Amino acid sequence: MATLDASDCVDQIIDALPAASITAAQKTSRFKQFDIVADHSDHFYTYSNMSAGKKGDCFKNAGSNVYKKIMQEWRILENNLPESIFVRVYEGRIDLLRAVIIGAQGTPYHDGLFFFDFAFPSDYPNNPPLVHYHSHGLELNPNLYDNGYVCLSLLNTWSAEETEMWNPTGSTVLQALVSLQALVLNEKPYYNEPGYEEPSSGDWDLDSAEYNGEVFGLSCKTMMFLIDNPPKNFEAFVKDHFCERANVILAACRAYIEGRARVGYYDGSPSSPCTVDVSREFKGTMEALYPNLEVAFNRNAASKSA
């Protein structure tokens, strides 16, 4: 499973992240990377009992250590987010947070959007935040279950060495988000499965390549779910992202189907030779998915111009 030493420098990890497909709209002030919003009605933890009764007082008392620590987290996020991660926090529920990660180039998650809901416990930071992935019933990573469970040592949801677990004095939400992008939504997620080790020779393993094909198909299905049901406070973000990346995503689909690029490595070239072996299963899945994805993108573009 993916792990990260709690003492690792976040800046170094961010610098090492592969590039994500940042759209022109996201680079402007039209959609802030960090912002405080009001509506948390669709947040996974909105109706949890973690903030109910007396134990929720710490989230309302500006003098409490928990309140102060969460405000510190807000400042860290506001000033240090990598350009591929966007965060919304809630003025009336400081215990809740939502983030989206843009899938990086060079991975089967490229151009996808991956949403996570966080909830701070009443004894934060003694214990890490709870994290729920918006899976839409799809399991596109060994660390991200189809029920939304997130398996990561830094969140204490997977056993590991003490240095890889949550550290109350040093771990942060930013570190958790960077871990999700760098260690979970990575180039070869097949090897995130316990007991699966990457070949020491560095050869591209066939099982890993096939898994990446499955993952990309599930990522495309996730895109369609998000277009139809964008999370609150990210509606414009989702619309703009897929308006600007639709042609690239569809071109990548064709390149992968035709064997002109390995999944995750489409470079925009229309004339690459067909040198990649494509399984019958992957080709059939993507041929069936492609027209539905195209329709979803066209519908998204039409709603933007309406």
Automatic annotation (TrEMBL):
<keyword id="KW-0833">Ubl conjugation pathway</keyword>
<feature type="domain" description="UBC core">
    <location>
        <begin position="65"/>
        <end position="224"/>
    </location>
</feature>
<dbReference type="GO" id="GO:0061631">
    <property type="term" value="F:ubiquitin conjugating enzyme activity"/>
</dbReference>
<dbReference type="Pfam" id="PF00179">
    <property type="entry name" value="UQ_con"/>
</dbReference>
<dbReference type="InterPro" id="IPR016135">
    <property type="entry name" value="UBQ-conjugating_enzyme/RWD"/>
</dbReference>
<keyword id="KW-0808">Transferase</keyword>
<dbReference type="InterPro" id="IPR000608">
    <property type="entry name" value="UBC"/>
</dbReference>
<protein>
    <submittedName>
        <fullName>Uncharacterized protein MANES_15G000600</fullName>
    </submittedName>
</protein>
